Amino acid sequence: MKRKAFALVAALAAFGAGTLSAPVAAQQEGDQFFPLLVYRTGAYAPNGTPWANGKQDYVKYINATGGINGVKIGWEECETGYATDKGVECYERLKSKKPSMIDPQATGITFALTDKAPVDKVPLVTLGYGLAASQDGGVFKWNFPLMGSYWTAADALIQHLGKKEGGLDKLKGKKIALVYHDSPFGKEPIPLLQKRAQMHGFELVLLPVTAPGVEQKATWLQVRQQRPDYTLLWGWGVMNSTALKEAVATGYPREKLLGVWWSGAEPDVKDVGANAKGYSALALNPHGTDSVLIKDILKKVHDAGNGAGPREEVGSVLYMRGLLISMLSVEAVRTAQAKFGKGKVMTGEQVRWGLENLNVDEKRIGELGLAGLIRPIKTSCNDHMGSTSVRIHSWDGTTWKMQPDWYEADKSVIDPLVKEAADKYATDKQIKRRDASDCAA
Amino acid sequence: MLYRENGQFKTSYAADQQIFPIAQDRLAIGLLLLVAFVVMPMAGSEYLFRAVLIPFLILALAALGLNILVGYCGQISLGTGAFMAVGAYAAYNFMVRIDGMPLIGAMLLGGLTATVVGVLFGVPSLRIKGLYLAVATLAAQFFTDWAFLRISWFTNNSTSGSVSVAGLNVFGLPIESPVAKYLFCLTVVCVFALAAKNLTRTATGRQWMAIRDMDVAAAVIGIRPVYAKLTAFAVSSFIVGVAGVLWAFVHLGAWEPAAFSIDRSFQLLFMVIIGGLGSIMGAFFGAAFIVVLPIILDQVPHLLGIPLSTATTSHLVHMIFGALIVFFLIAEPHGLAKLWSIGKQKLRLWPFPH
Amino acid sequence: MMMNDMPQAVQAQEPTQVSGRRIGDVVLDLQNISLSFGGVKALTNISFDVREHEIRSIIGPNGAGKSSMLNVINGVYHPQEGRILFRGEERRRMEPHMAAAQGIARTFQNIALFKGMSVLDNIMTGRNLKMKCGLLAHALYWGRAQKEEIAHRVKVEEVIDFLEIQDIRKTPVGALPYGLQKRVELGRALAAEPNLLLLDEPMAGMNVEEKQDMCRFILDVNDQFGTTIVLIEHDMGVVMDISDRVVVLDYGKKIGDGVPDEVRANEDVIRAYLGTSH
Amino acid sequence: MGFFLETLFGGLMAGMLYSLIALGFVLIYKASGVFNFAQGAMVLFAALAMARFAEWIPKWLGFDNLILANLLAFGVAMALMVVLAWVIERLCLSKLVNQEGITLLMATLGISYFLDGLGQTLFGNDIYSINVGMPKEPAMILEGTFQGGLLISKEDLVAALIAAGLVLALALFFQKTTTGRALRAVADDHQAAQSIGIPLNRIWVIVWSVAGFAALVAGIIWGSKLGVQFSLSLVALKALPVVILGGLTSVPGAILGGLIIGVGEKLSEIYLGSFFGGGIEIWFAYVLALGFLLVRPQGLFGEKIIDRV
């Protein structure tokens, strides 16, 4: 036994020396490299997996259709398990391959990478998550919370509630509860909600749920006790379905329950089924298989036997979000190529420029095969978000039904908050706000 | 044949009480330090520093601290992550609240704060033993997890509850590049490893081990259990706290309480046990095993060109990792350090086995 | 341990003939000690004293309460009733380490060495009370701390020489044979330079030679250092040979007390021993 | 008052489930001296097996009957747990006899890593559902007595009843049957048990199978409530304060401890939580147990540890 142990240690050590000194090189020379941080295991796997598949499928789709102006995309997945230290390890491992950008796929990892990215010149694409303040490109040169942050999400939800009540002023005296994942992800919307509560005179009740969120009995008993007029759900992973089940078990009307866009996908309601009928959540992106793009992906990727996940999953909410992340990253590379040279491999810095000068207008959306499904996205030096448009979709017991109204975050509410938080960050980190010349470059 | 102590006679007790009484060992450790301090910074890649060596060093330090408590004093703790967190958040607060607080100062103060909290949670050890104590230390884990999330003062009222530090320097030298970070961690680890070794080979260490091996007999020869147990908690938490500061400041840069979750506590306990209880070297072996092995296993299918999905790889890594732990526990319950010393013993006699 | 083989042993040597040794005043006086565990009486109303420099033995059948008696003396157990006077002062409830601080050392019936440590380290722990350096000095191991360690190492080496265990000083105690472990345990107690030494069956499980060695060490300790010794031993020959006075316990009660000859003649003692021997 | 009763009731329901998981710990600890950290992984593994087989078996055999599918899946999952117990005994425990508690604890942590990986490799890592026909909608009772009535979750009630029945059955098994008595004999003294002719190996396989059974039932109940996915393995953490509160070696301790912790944490969260900012139940349970241990180091019903020298 001892001898075997020795042999094993020796073998592992020898092998270790080999692998650590020669990092994996999977992509081919001359590819535009997309590192794909994912989590397909652990407590958040059910939600992370379709997201990861969407990211991967779009990359494969682009390669199947000739690349970005002829430049193929090299990619490699790295499993983080939603753990920050694993995420950092993945980042460091993939960094040496000159990544175009990185989507950490977790708020915690985003925080850890926000300091490293500027040093390594890797843009962070955090579509719909990450640091709300990083919308401010003047301070956060390398962060791109495209299409929305937790503040724009919270703002849209309050606007939606105002609309339901017949005007924001009708929220006065109402009680709104926030059931949130007790982590930076869940806490981000609180400052905005507090500001809105002050503006409209509603009472905000904060109910934290300890991660991962399998134990919510006490939380929902409190909901039952406080009887809020509306309850906002800010969960991720298993917390969402558990919340819905507890809402059912305590008889809280699902119609009064509204989720953020991370609480409104198929894995969240699948297991609750008909009992979740009436529940609504923000829809950051469209879903379904009707669009030109999805039909094309099914044909060129899945029919060719290249699909990352099962065929049924294509078009689901989180799959589409992953798809959009890759799509916008590809668009950024395309934009960069238009300036720095078509058909060339772009560096991280050039892609960053592309992300900052994105202009996906209606025409381009049509070309991308998503006509009418998303709103135009236009970023700038100061605005790294590009769009705050969002819709609501409701669960009818079997599918998510998109509602027609678009909401935009109220700039007069969001902007001062963003500015304040970004300035505080800049002071803490001793960063100077970028001036006009830096923007022009 | 080369590894012999024949002819090396000790003429004084001081010489006999050296850490490495055998000349070849002194040479080996000298070479190791030379490689670590001089060769590595010149030859290592950035990935090696940031993703492998820095986390390895910091977690080895934390395991060293834990080993003092578990390996030397016999008090099991499942709350190590908590003491790392206390160190990290305390140091953060000293940094942001006191102008001009140097990194080293914040680090030591963070360690001291962890000491205070560690001693506080060590008090139950005076009455509770073994597994009961192990589970009781989970109270520390869950309480600090909660406190750093919930009490916004600790995070300097950060809206998200995540905090970050920047512009680290020691005596004016910036600790920004991977090499600088690596050297800083390496220095801290070497200093603490030496101090820990000194503690464990003198009266303090003997008191800890006496309490571990037979607490009643220890009391009968005049060792105060209160003192021995609480100093073990204090020293252990101090080192663990400093490791927490390094993990947060140097390795992560920005962090949230999840960085010091219960998984971290288990991970450190694994390191200590796989590496070898009651052995300074064991902490390093254990950290190497636990930090490096999953990274290697992760890359194996890729290297061999086997098209496994990320999820499958990750699950297989879990399985192999778990199986290896059980295997090593069966093969050598006293850990890799014991295996190492058996190996050395054999080498001493080689090539004549008797 | 039959009573009838004792006379020969006694004839071989007169018990109180140890040279150059003066029995002094009473150092330890136990008065009316009673101890019980959850209603079960372990000791009932026991009184006896120990004089300076003497070898005082406690004998009795298994379960008579001998080890409990030692545990009372060094503070492991706390009697519910009775007074303990140590050097003329009444002792309050105390913990074992305080007893050690007053110069009481002991060995155990079932060896209580620190298994994970070497012989040297085990004996070094005996010096613990005499070492003054603190944690920080130890961590630095520089100057005073190093000097102190070496000074005490010298003392410990004396003990090692005395017990003739030089060749095993670096061996982990767990790897030693039983007889040597007993010797190391004695060494640990001696390293504390006690003035009262409690020995709980130091010769149990030994062969004849080992017993002779151990007897010699005990007598030498008593002779050279003037250490007062309280001894529990089953081997009657040994007890009657080396003891100055003997206390006999049975079922937690004292049934005899006096010099060996007196005890040997005591009717109760004979009855108790015959009752339990085969 | 009505709300207090609802909270109390909710706590009792949750507590009953904690008891069930705690029982798994106690059984194994009693019979083999192993503090089994893999209990959580076993819950996940068992639940995954149950969920997937209930889905697969009708497909393979081509029938469509929920009850039959569940019964068959239960049988297969249970068989799997027995095989697992046997493998664990063979490959792991039998080789670690007479090792210290901490080594055994670490081994079970290794086992738990292995099971997490194995379970998800074999059965997938999505959310799966177990449908054993638990009622989901709440019931209102005593509407006359309290304003708004008392809300009782029917699902919790059924779950608690099943858990209570099982706990009772296991307690009886331990106290009344020959095998149960043999298990206790092993706990008291390994050598003595062997010398009167009880094969230790078989005892261990049995006790791990019983723990597997407890894990399977816990997995079904929790899985039906929460959906079967990775987080299930974390519910075991909730049972640890229960075990130390009740005493590692006591079956009644596990039951009572579970109820105390369940009620304690719900009441504390609702009535004290707001003073601290909420989310306190996770540490409150541990602090409660810790405080209790300071008064009684061996737990409620644990055996008192006396140092002998």
UniProtKB/TrEMBL annotation, chain A:
Domain of life the protein comes from: Bacteria
Species per Swiss-Prot/TrEMBL record: Aromatoleum toluvorans
Keywords (A to Z) from UniProt: Signal
InterPro entries: Leu-bd, Peripla_BP_I
Keyword Protein transport in annotation: no
SUPFAM superfamilies: Periplasmic binding protein-like I (SSF53822)
Domain Leucine-binding protein: 35-396
Family: Belongs to the leucine-binding protein family.
Signal peptide limits: 1-22
Protein name: ABC transporter substrate-binding protein
Automatic annotation (TrEMBL), chain B:
Compartment(s) of residence: Cell membrane
Keyword Membrane: yes
Keywords: Cell membrane, Membrane, Transmembrane, Transmembrane helix
UniProt keyword Transmembrane helix, yes or no: yes
PANTHER family the record matches: ABC TRANSPORTER PERMEASE PROTEIN, HIGH-AFFINITY BRANCHED-CHAIN AMINO ACID TRANSPORT SYSTEM PERMEASE
Major location (coarse): membrane
Transmembrane segments: 27-43, 49-69, 76-95, 101-123, 130-149, 179-196, 233-254, 266-296, 316-337
Membrane topology label: Multi-pass membrane protein
Stored InterPro entries: ABC_transp_permease, LivM-like
The protein's name: Branched-chain amino acid ABC transporter permease
From TrEMBL, chain C:
UniProt-recorded Gene Ontology molecular function terms: ATP binding
SMART domains registered for this protein in UniProt: AAA (SM00382)
InterPro entries with a match to the protein in the record: AAA+_ATPase, ABC_AA/LPS_Transport, ABC_transporter-like_ATP-bd, BCA_ABC_TP_C, P-loop_NTPase
Domain ABC transporter intervals: 28-276
Pfam families, alphabetized: ABC_tran (PF00005), BCA_ABC_TP_C (PF12399)
PROSITE patterns registered for this protein in UniProt: ABC_TRANSPORTER_2
UniProt keyword list: ATP-binding, Cell membrane, Membrane, Nucleotide-binding, Transport
Name assigned to this protein: ATP-binding cassette domain-containing protein
Origin organism lineage: Bacteria, Pseudomonadati, Pseudomonadota, Betaproteobacteria, Rhodocyclales
From TrEMBL, chain D:
Residue spans crossing the bilayer: 7-28, 34-54, 66-88, 157-174, 203-222, 242-263, 270-295
Protein name as annotated: Branched-chain amino acid ABC transporter permease
Broad class of the protein's primary localization: membrane
Keywords: Amino-acid transport, Cell membrane, Membrane, Transmembrane, Transmembrane helix, Transport
Domain of life where this protein originates: Bacteria
CDD domains assigned to the protein according to its UniProt record, in alphabetical order: TM_PBP1_LivH_like
PANTHER family per record: ABC TRANSPORTER PERMEASE PROTEIN, BRANCHED-CHAIN AMINO ACID TRANSPORT SYSTEM PERMEASE PROTEIN LIVH
Transmembrane helix among keywords: yes
Membrane topology of this protein: Multi-pass membrane protein
Compartments (UniProt record): Cell membrane
Family note: Belongs to the binding-protein-dependent transport system permease family. LivHM subfamily.
